[in-house]
């Protein structure tokens, strides 16, 4: 033994067979042992013994050998024996994403290549992990396509690939995968719904979108996701308000028959959407009755709601508050509803862009706060709040910041939501004596603003800030153009 210890080469060979814990203990004995125990070649030998195949080799290449061995050691001590479609696996991925990753790589490398169904499940789980925990959508696409090549029923996987390509603005690839999924199984509801939304919002192919929405509703009349998307389509893209009423009543009957909330909070989303639709078409008392269902459900909660339901409860209270001021001029009731929303933990603990938008609108209309949010906000948040936030910068006389935000909204002038920014830019152009350009931009805004919804929202917020001379001038010009447009029509 003394000969082994005195020989660096022999001692290196002994250490190479120790586990990580023993190797770390050996490194603490003396400086000489420390230098040998931390030799890169030694750790590379350990790492090479952990290679099971192509996937673990890829993982080793991401790490230095020492980090890979330590990860492998942690994994070997962790019992990972739960189903890949279980809630426990999802929690494990969120908490220990690297252990989940090495688990899947080892499983993929060691499974028999003839076990197609098991391989498809592993590749699909790997793709989900890469998308949700590592935010690597391109790798997720690669593994989903591997899953498809091994799956006996790849319809869901094809749909998921389509969603990822859509997310990365590769619309041709997205449509190709949506179409393949539809051809393979025309009854797969998620694909019917999302394919319809894709044709509607991404392709602006309203004829094909209408066909696909009808197919989705016919295939599953109880699917709230499809009902939500289709009612929006029939409200703003192919207006058919009687049909919208009918679909919403169908959804409300379904919601009334259930006493629980789904994990994704779709019941609350539909209630909010229906109430806001009634506000759009000036059925204000009906809207108040529907909004009140949100309040009743929140006050009658017997179990703690999911995070999605908490989000929609908070949005519902804020939307109700805004409508109480907008439709009923009841400032006291509006502020009471905001106070109740602020008492919800999600109000302060969630930065979802849509919630931030409702909070911003409630603050600048109900409390008449004119302080804009920082321009340093995330890109995703800026895209949602830019029209309103730009207006607040304008009221604070930071015209350059306002124009920057509004300009970022109008890349796609066919989108109804961009009418708000178009109106604002039209007023600014008018004030800068660019009358022709102002008229063109405002004409476009009126053309895309179905039901004049964005005009109502803009003038409503502006009226809350008439104590500022700049807001009064802005509103006067906006109303002048509105009257001129009505005369021309």
From TrEMBL:
It holds the Pfam family F-box-like. Gene3D superfamilies: 1.20.1280.50, Tetratricopeptide repeat domain. The keyword Amino-acid biosynthesis does not apply. TPR repeats lie at residues 155-188. The keyword Coiled coil does not apply. Keywords: TPR repeat. It comes from the Eukaryota. Residues 1-46 form the F-box domain. Signal peptide: none annotated. This is F-box domain-containing protein. It comes from Thraustotheca clavata.
């Amino acid at each position: 033994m003394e000969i082994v210890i005195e020989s660096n080469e022999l001692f290196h060979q002994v250490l190479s067979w120790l586990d990580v814990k023993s190797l770390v203990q050996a490194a603490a004995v003396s400086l000489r042992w420390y230098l040998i125990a931390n030799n890169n070649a030694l750790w590379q030998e350990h790492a090479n013994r952990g290679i099971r195949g192509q996937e673990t080799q890829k993982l080793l290449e991401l790490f230095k050998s020492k980090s890979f061995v330590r990860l492998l050691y942690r994994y070997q001590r962790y019992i990972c024996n739960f189903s890949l479609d279980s809630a426990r696996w999802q929690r494990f991925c969120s908490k220990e994403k690297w252990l989940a990753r090495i688990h899947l790589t080892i499983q993929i490398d060691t499974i028999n290549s003839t076990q197609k169904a098991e391989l498809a499940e592993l590749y699909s789980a790997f793709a989900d992990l890469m998308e949700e925990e590592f935010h690597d959508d391109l790798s997720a696409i690669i593994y989903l396509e591997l899953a498809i090549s091994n799956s006996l029923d790849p319809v869901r996987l094809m749909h998921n690939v389509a969603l990822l390509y859509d997310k990365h603005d590769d619309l041709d690839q997205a449509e190709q995968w949506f179409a393949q999924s539809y051809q393979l199984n025309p009854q797969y509801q998620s694909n019917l719904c999302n394919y319809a939304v894709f044709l509607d919002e991404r392709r602006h192919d309203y004829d094909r979108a209408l066909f696909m929405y009808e197919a989705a509703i016919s295939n599953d009349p109880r699917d709230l996701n499809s009902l939500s998307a289709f009612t929006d389509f029939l409200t703003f893209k192919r207006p058919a308000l009687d049909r919208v009423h009918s679909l919403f009543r169908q959804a409300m009957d379904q919601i009334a028959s259930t006493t629980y909330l789904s994990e994704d909070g779709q019941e609350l989303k539909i209630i909010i959407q229906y109430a806001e639709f009634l506000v759009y078409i000036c059925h204000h008392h009906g809207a108040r009755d529907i909004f009140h269902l949100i309040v009743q459900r929140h006050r009658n909660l017997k179990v703690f709601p999911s995070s999605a339901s908490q989000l929609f409860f908070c949005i519902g209270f804020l939307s109700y508050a805004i409508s109480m001021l907008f439709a009923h001029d009841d400032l006291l009731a509006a502020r009471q509803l905001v106070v109740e929303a602020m008492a919800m933990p999600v109000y302060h603990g969630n930065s979802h862009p849509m919630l931030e938008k409702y909070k911003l609108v409630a603050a600048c209309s109900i409390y008449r706060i004119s302080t804009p949010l920082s321009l340093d906000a995330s890109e995703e948040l800026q895209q949602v709040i830019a029209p309103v936030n730009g207006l607040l910068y304008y009221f604070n006389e930071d015209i350059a910041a306002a124009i920057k935000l509004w300009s970022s909204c109008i890349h796609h002038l066919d989108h109804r939501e961009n009418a708000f920014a178009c109106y604002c830019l039209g007023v600014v152009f008018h004030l800068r004596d660019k009358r022709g350009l102002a008229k063109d931009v405002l004409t476009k805004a009126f053309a895309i603003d179905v039901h004049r919804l964005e005009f109502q929202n803009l003038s409503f917020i502006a009226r809350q800030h008439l104590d500022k001379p700049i807001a009064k001038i802005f509103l006067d010009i906006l109303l002048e153009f509105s009257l001129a447009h009505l005369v021309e029509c």
